[in-house]
Amino acid sequence: MPLDALNSLGFAKPPAETRVVVAMSGGVDSSVVAAELKAQGYDVVGVTLQLYDHGAALAKKGACCAGVDIHDARRVAETMGFPHYVLDYENIFKDAVIEEFAESYLAGATPVPCIRCNERVKFKDLLETAKDLDADCMATGHYIQRKIGSAGPELHMAGDPNRDQSYFLFSTTPEQLSFLRFPLGHLVSKEETRALAAKHGLAVADKPDSQDICFVPNGNYASVIEKLRPGAGEPGEIVDMDGNKLADHRGVIHYTIGQRRGLGIGGLSTPLYVVRLDPDARQVVVGPKEALAKRTVPVREINWLGDTPLAPGHEIEIRTRIRSTRPPAEAVLRPLADGTAEVDLLTAEEGVSPGQACVFYAPEGSRVLGGGWIWRGA
């Protein structure tokens, strides 16, 4: 079938006969996706997930999937004239995302729950719900691109590098990718999205973007962990890399790899940084900045989106990103026989932390090749 015979979502039938479920968080991005597709004549069904305590969320602005955001999503559906459903996924979200977040943090890792939410909730359970609703595809407001390559759908970075969300979507599987659509991925600025919202008369056109993890008020991870695991913030020692005690701390959960401020260690000529967390010994290990630099990154739970399978013993030139805020850097991927891999960075990076994602990109261009989770103390 020639491409010009397909509609904008890639189906060989009129938009009116193409049902698309739009995952609506209540923000401007997913609202614009739903409004644009409805305006193009598609059979749109909006679905919003309630992921955590509705009552507590009403008082919290700037999050998604609860409280005022559910109301905003419903209002967009009323404005544009398509059905909208709210699904209570609170228990699923708690089991699949929040509990692991707590356990990982207590183990000294720095988890990224937004990735697990996409992987285990939005692109799993919600995607299956979309299929149950006889949808042809599911669309989201993520800033990432889906392109058709020689071997099928490919994942690519967004047109706007400042909005690119590929770091948070690396675990999207080929099967999921065949069903997903990302209508905003090609836009080159957020201003374009807000202009589309204004064109459709959406009340969320000027709504601020969410900043924090939805269930972590004001970015205070430790307070959430203490609520989930009472007594988790046990005090211990801050030690140097030789094990010498430098100070006391109020709980390992209050520290992250690479942290410099708030250590309570003064009078030193050389600044110290958190280089390792040892929850079992209740120790925060500190050292000079150069101790943070890592060249080899161990990864597991690999999701590979390349055209040919990973083979142990082969080396693959890639670019990689170990922080969502950093640009991809040159590296070599070395798959291992046990399903894990090592990523050798051509230039050492600081702050490599267990629990973070290591995302793979093609050496050139915008293609996302998957990624894995950093582990084993990095």
> How would you state the average pLDDT, rounded?
90
* Overall strand count: 17
Rg over CA atoms, rounded to whole Å, is 22 Å
Distance between the termini: 48 Å
User: Could you estimate the helical fraction of the residues in percent?
Assistant: 10-25%
Order the strands across the largest sheet as they lie in space.
12-15-14-13-16-17
Structural class: alpha/beta
Question: Hey, roughly how much beta strand do the residues contain?
Answer: 25-35%
The biggest beta sheet reads: 6 strands, antiparallel, barrel
* Low-confidence sequence ranges: 54-63
Question: Number of helical segments?
Answer: 9
Give the SSE string: EHEHHEHHHEEEHEHHEEEEEEEEEE
Task: Give an overview of the whole structure.
With 378 residues, the chain is α/β, with parallel strands linked by helices. Helix content is 23%, strand content 26%. A hairpin with a 2-residue loop joins strand 5 and strand 6. Helix 1 packs parallel to helix 3 (68-80). The longest helix is centred in the N-terminal third of the chain and has 17 residues, at 90-106.
Characterize this entry briefly.
With 378 residues, this protein is of the alpha/beta class. 23% of the residues lie in helices and 26% in strands. The longest helix is centred in the N-terminal third of the chain and has 17 residues, at 90-106.
Key words describing this protein structure:
alpha/beta, globular, 17 strands, about 375 residues, 5-stranded parallel sheet, 9 helices, about 25% strand, 6-stranded antiparallel beta barrel, single chain
Topology:
Elements: E1 19-23, H1 28-39, E2 43-50, H2 54-57, H3 68-80, E3 84-88, H4 90-106, H5 113-122, H6 125-132, E4 137-139, E5 145-149, E6 152-156, H7 174-179, E7 180-181, H8 190-199, H9 221-228, E8 236-239, E9 245-249, E10 273-278, E11 283-287, E12 294-304, E13 316-321, E14 329-335, E15 341-349, E16 357-361, E17 367-374
Parallel strand pairs: 1-2, 1-4, 2-3, 4-7, 8-11
Antiparallel strand pairs: 5-6, 6-17, 8-9, 10-11, 12-15, 12-17, 13-14, 13-16, 14-15, 16-17
Helix pairs in contact: 1-3, 1-8, 4-5
